[in-house]
């Protein structure tokens, strides 16, 4: 048994080293001063971080990322909350149709979605190609599967239809019941969906580059453009980006643990 | 009655924003792409020439071939390593298990541009390992070039492994300890057990995951774009330059290639969902030992974070 455990330990050890190595290398590069022909950096510096924090173009791309992702997630929430609610409560029979429609973006690669969007909106009556509008629309579709799955699961977990019936029997309208009973109950699930969608969009590159790459710079686009110019600066951005995603992941896990008691999937 | 119909109208009105957005940003673009792919280069007449070009022109056919090959090999490597690792993870105590899974899930966020960049630091022309191997005089790596077929495959394998672990891991809990005990009691060797019981049991999950990994690699764009730009002839890169290229654009041909890509991808995801149903039929048995029950509960409580990364881990995101 111990001999066997040894094999598993070695395998997992290798796996972790393999998976973490690119991350560690990026982090080293972000803090490295002189590093040309040696295995480890010769000098260390925080200068790249200082440079980055003073870089107006980076700050603008950060702002672009935040507001584009924020608006898209908010739009998705405002639209999807009532939609999922209505479908679960009023049209449970149509749910399979609804589901296959909503999960479609998951099966379609971003590059394909971009081709369709460009074709539809680069000319004609609604020429919004290259603007933030088309990107927000594309983002809305891109996060549909996550939003839908998250919201639907939490509605079913709290058994929204039964709660509504109970509330109605006590003489409250469905809208009020939704606001005062369902919404507070699904709040953790909603938060998870929001965080998840946000982190997905924050790392989005294909759609952003093809739809608005020349016009609007998000963090990913900026990172790509910086790759060729300054590797050190690019690695500080990559590390910053990854730390941000890490925080979001930790947040997701924490909320997931909090929901352990109530949430049964 | 009248009041009820009025309420019905309100309900439908609530679905309106969703319908508008879906039509505007999903259905219309998809339709536009489909119709575009069946048009000639001028876009004024019905024609099958784009598909003929895509499948017979050596250049575009090569792109499809390259994409299929790199997707196939990287998925195969990913699933083999991922399945071995996932099985090893199940052998650890819950605390270690959680930590390893968390790490693996975390790295699945590391894809696209940042990943390509990290590999440049590691294995690029002045990369850490390139220098290290040079210093040690390891000639076998002298022929290795990150900005080529082999380098690209290596990076693809990297983002496939965490996804494979994530998707295959739960299926190992479908293999009950009693089956193993029973087969050992009947005199089977561990190898025999795996060949006759273990592997057939997880085979649907492996096949389904292979489908997802394949689709994931076919649609991958950011990594290849950052690493080799548009020099390397891959389907996704080709589509992008046909539609938004600087020199010449042929949106109709790009649409046809995109339709082909979408068909493979949808087929792969469909295979996965069929296989998942099969796995569910396997694992959702009524007779569970207390031990396996505990394990399933552990899984179900962890469902939220697992779900999360299984979706966001996709490179195409």
TrEMBL record, chain A:
Topological type in the membrane: Multi-pass membrane protein
Ranges that cross the membrane: 12-32, 65-91, 103-121, 127-148, 182-202, 233-255
Domain (ABC transmembrane type-1): residue spans on this chain: 62-252
Localization terms from the record: Cell inner membrane; Cell membrane
CDD domains: TM_PBP2
Chief site of localization: membrane
UniProt keyword annotations, A-Z: Cell inner membrane, Cell membrane, Membrane, Transmembrane, Transmembrane helix, Transport
SUPFAM superfamilies referenced in this protein's UniProt entry, alphabetically: MetI-like
Domain of life the protein comes from: Bacteria
Family: Belongs to the binding-protein-dependent transport system permease family.
PANTHER family per UniProt: INNER MEMBRANE ABC TRANSPORTER PERMEASE PROTEIN YDCV
Entry protein name: ABC transporter permease
TrEMBL record, chain B:
Gene3D superfamilies: MetI-like
PROSITE patterns in the record: ABC_TM1
Organism in which the protein naturally occurs: Paenibacillus segetis
Lineage: Bacteria, Bacillati, Bacillota, Bacilli, Bacillales
CDD domains membership: TM_PBP2
Keyword match Membrane: yes
InterPro entries per record: MetI-like, MetI-like_sf
Bilayer-spanning residue ranges: 12-34, 68-89, 110-133, 153-172, 193-215, 253-271
Cell compartment(s), UniProt: Cell membrane
Polar residues composition bias: residue spans: 307-317
Family: Belongs to the binding-protein-dependent transport system permease family. CysTW subfamily.
Protein name according to UniProt: ABC transporter permease
Membrane topology: Multi-pass membrane protein
Keywords recorded for this protein, A-Z: Cell membrane, Membrane, Transmembrane, Transmembrane helix, Transport
Pfam families given in the database record: BPD_transp_1
Residue span, ABC transmembrane type-1 domain: 64-272
Chain positions covered by the region annotation Disordered: 285-317
């Amino acid at each position: 048994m111990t001999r066997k455990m040894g094999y598993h330990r070695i395998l997992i050890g290798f796996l972790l080293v393999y998976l973490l190595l690119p991350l560690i290398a990026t982090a080293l590069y972000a803090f490295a001063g002189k590093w040309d022909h040696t295995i480890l950096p010769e000098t260390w510096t925080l200068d790249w971080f200082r440079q980055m924090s003073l870089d107006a173009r980076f700050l603008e791309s950060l702002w672009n990322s935040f507001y584009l992702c924020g608006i898209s997630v908010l739009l998705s929430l405002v639209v999807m909350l009532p939609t999922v609610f209505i479908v679960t409560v009023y049209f449970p029979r149509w749910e399979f149709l609804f589901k296959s429609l909503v999960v479609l973006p998951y099966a379609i690669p971003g590059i394909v979605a971009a081709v369709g969007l460009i074709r539809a909106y680069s000319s004609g009556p609604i020429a919004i190609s290259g603007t933030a509008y088309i990107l927000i629309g594309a983002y809305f579709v891109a996060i549909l599967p996550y939003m839908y799955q998250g919201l639907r699961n939490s509605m079913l977990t709290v058994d929204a239809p039964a709660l509504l019936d109970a509330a109605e029997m006590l003489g409250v309208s469905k809208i009020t019941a939704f606001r005062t009973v369902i919404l507070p109950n699904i709040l953790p699930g909603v938060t998870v969906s929001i965080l998840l969608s946000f982190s997905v969009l924050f790392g989005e590159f294909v759609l952003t580059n093809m739809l608005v790459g020349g016009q609007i710079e998000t963090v990913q686009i900026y990172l790509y453009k910086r790759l060729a110019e300054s590797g050190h600066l690019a690695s500080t951005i990559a590390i910053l980006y990854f730390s941000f995603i890490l925080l979001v992941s930790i947040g997701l896990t924490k909320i997931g643990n909090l929901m352990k008691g109530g949430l049964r999937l | 009655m009248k009041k009820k119909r009025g309420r019905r109208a309100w309900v439908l009105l609530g679905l309106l924003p969703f319908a508008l957005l879906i039509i505007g940003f999903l259905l219309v673009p998809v339709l536009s792409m489909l119709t575009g792919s069946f048009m000639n280069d001028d876009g004024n007449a019905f024609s099958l020439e784009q598909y003929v070009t895509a499948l017979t022109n050596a250049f575009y056919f090569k792109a499809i071939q390259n994409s299929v090959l790199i997707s196939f090999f990287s998925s195969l490597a990913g699933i083999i390593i991922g399945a071995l690792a996932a099985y090893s993870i199940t052998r650890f105590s819950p605390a270690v298990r959680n930590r390893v899974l968390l790490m693996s899930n975390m790295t699945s966020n590391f894809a696209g541009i940042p990943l390509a960049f990290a590999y440049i630091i590691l294995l690029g022309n002045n990369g850490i390992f390139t220098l290290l191997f040079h210093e040690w005089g390891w000639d076998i790596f002298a022929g290795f070039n990150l900005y080529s077929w082999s380098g690209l495959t290596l990076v693809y394998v990297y983002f496939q492994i965490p996804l494979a672990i994530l998707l295959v891991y739960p299926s190992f809990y479908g293999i009950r300890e009693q089956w193993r005990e029973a087969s050992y009691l009947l005199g089977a060797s561990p190898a025999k057990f795996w060949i006759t019981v273990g592997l057939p049991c997880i085979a649907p999950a492996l096949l389904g995951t292979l489908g997802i990994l394949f689709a994931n690699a076919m649609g991958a764009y950011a990594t290849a774009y950052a690493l080799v730009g548009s020099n390397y002839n891959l389907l996704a890169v080709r589509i992008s330059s046909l539609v938004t290229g600087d020199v010449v654009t042929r949106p109709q041909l790009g649409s046809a290639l995109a339709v082909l890509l979408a068909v493979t991808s949808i087929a792969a995801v469909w295979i996965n969902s069929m296989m998942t149903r099969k796995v569910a039929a396997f694992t959702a048995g009524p007779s569970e030992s207390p031990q396996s029950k505990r394990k399933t509960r552990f899984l179900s409580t962890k469902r939220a974070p697992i779900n999360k990364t299984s979706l966001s881990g996709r490179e195409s995101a």
